[in-house]
Amino acid sequence: MPKILFSKASPYSAKVRMAAHQAGIAFESVATETGTPPESLLEANPLGKIPVFIPDESGAIYDSRVITQYLNRESKGSLFPRNGIKRLEAEQMEALCDGICDAALAHVYERRMRPEELVHQPWLDRQWDKAERALDLLNGQTISLPTKVHAGHLALRATLAYLALRFEGKWEKKRGKLTRWADRFDRKFPELAAYLPKS
């Protein structure tokens, strides 16, 4: 059975595990430490980053966007629209949400890895500005609750769950469309809740 090396708090891991579920591809979730990466992770991905998808046939696939494209091919196009314009929209949504997570994680790591007196506030502000601009863009768009989920939707749900986990109360104001979308998504697709980021 394929394996996904993951961290339970990681939004990228959440996206990939939801994507595999939606694609109908059975997998084993292997919780993996990233602070001091184990040899098994470094052998799979020399960058020591998760998620990593390990197919049955050997080899390893990373990063998360490469994995969603792989899963899409393996499931005969279940994760991205076939229409060229709609596919581009889905891919851009995935990229934008991953970018929000990149900025949020940079913010988290700056505080986690440095003593308080060495935290660089302008760096934190710059990262948060990126996340807020992207969130405002998404909140201003009409994002319908999908009947057929694509990878962009999964990336958005994983991103909002990660922000709720690490930045609760700091991003939701004036972004009610996004919070309502997340609530409706969870009610419509309860089977995906187990994969969302958790502490």
Q: Give me the count of strands.
A: 3
How is the largest sheet built, in terms of strand order?
A: 2-1-3
Shape assignment: globular
- Using only C-alpha atoms, the radius of gyration works out to 17 Å
Order of helices and strands: EHEHEHHHHH
| Average predicted confidence as pLDDT | 95
Helical run tally: 7
How is the main sheet built? 3 strands, mixed
Q: How many angstroms does the end-to-end distance come to?
A: 27 Å
Fraction of residues in H or I helices? 40-55%
Instruction: Provide the structure class.
Output: mainly alpha
* Beta-strand content: 5-15%
- Low-confidence segments, given as residue ranges, are none
Entry keywords:
Glutathione-S-Trfase_C_sf, 6% strand, 7 helices, mainly alpha, Glutathione_S-Trfase_N, GST_Omega/HSP26, 199 residues, Glutathione S-transferase, three-stranded mixed β-sheet
Structure, explained:
This protein is mainly α and 199 residues long. Helix content is 55%, strand content 6%. It has 7 helices and 3 strands. It has a 3-stranded mixed β-sheet, covered by helices on one side. α4 runs parallel beside α6. The mean pLDDT is 95. This is Glutathione S-transferase. Pfam families: GST_N_3. InterPro entries: Glutathione-S-Trfase_C_sf (IPR036282), Glutathione_S-Trfase_N (IPR004045), GST_Omega/HSP26 (IPR050983), Thioredoxin-like_sf (IPR036249).
